[in-house]
Design a protein that fits this description.
235 residues, 2 domains, 5-stranded antiparallel sheet, two-stranded antiparallel sheet, flagellum, Flagellar_FlgE/F/G
């Protein structure tokens, strides 16, 4: 029964993290260049159950079936599917209509990646993000506004799961990306969030129902434990 409480605790903890992730995705359904974050869970390895109640002196090991202690959040990944392109008509707006990410240098010098091409020009006629981060070219220099499509440094990753979120649609990676030689960049467009509000609402309803099921199981376990402590002890 105590083990049942521990298993239910792990289950509710997983549901809490799923709920937080769903809420974050829904909150960014209108955020330009946002990529939905998905969680995946795994099951703990099965362990062998046994006791020492075999034999005439109850000192021999008796093996029973295996037991699994529940599930856990094994990690997360970004949904790299492309969002729809929205025409803005602004010359400082850009959308990547292919794989890849814009490369930017944050104010602390850190290199980050984003699909949000909602840029502006600074006093040096250089493209910067709305936060003021420099937009870099393939050779690592700030990109200056010129005629035609600017020479943005577009980087792709063989596995988007290596990207770690820095918040505000910026990502970093411990694995070096590959410079794309001919990325498809559309000027005057922005990429919308790829979050499906309907799918997230379905996931939220499912998570709420799982919360309710775990709550009922917790109540039943608590009643059983109450009887074991307060009634069986009197016999």
């Amino acid at each position: 029964m105590i083990r049942g409480l521990d298993t239910l605790y792990q289950s509710v903890n997983i549901l809490g993290k799923r709920q937080e992730n769903i809420s974050a995705n829904i909150a960014n359904v209108e955020t330009t260049g946002y990529q939905a974050k998905e969680l995946f869970q795994s099951t703990y390895k099965e362990v062998q159950m046994h006791n020492y109640q075999g034999g005439g002196d109850n000192d021999q090991r008796v093996n029973y079936d295996g037991f699994t202690y529940g599930n856990y959040i094994a990690g997360s990944y970004l949904d790299s599917s492309k969002g729809a392109l929205e025409s803005t008509g602004r010359s400082t707006d850009f959308a990547i209509n292919s794989d890849g990410y814009f490369t930017v240098r944050m104010n602390n010098g850190q290199i980050a990646y984003t699909r949000n091409g909602n840029f502006k020009l600074n006093d040096q006629n250089q493209y910067v993000t709305q936060e003021g981060y420099q937009v870099l070219s393939a050779d690592g220099n700030p990109v200056t506004a010129t005629t035609g499509t600017p020479d943005f440094g577009i980087v792709s990753f063989s596995d988007d799961r290596t990207l770690q979120s820095l918040g505000n649609v910026y990502y970093t990676s411990q694995t070096a990306g590959t410079q794309m030689t001919s990325p498809n960049v559309e000027q005057g467009y922005l990429e919308e969030s790829n979050v499906s509000a309907s799918d997230e609402m379905v996931s939220m309803i499912q998570t709420s129902r799982e919360f309710e099921a775990n709550q009922k199981a917790l109540s039943a376990t608590n009643q059983t434990l109450d009887k074991a402590v307060n009634y069986l002890g009197k016999i």
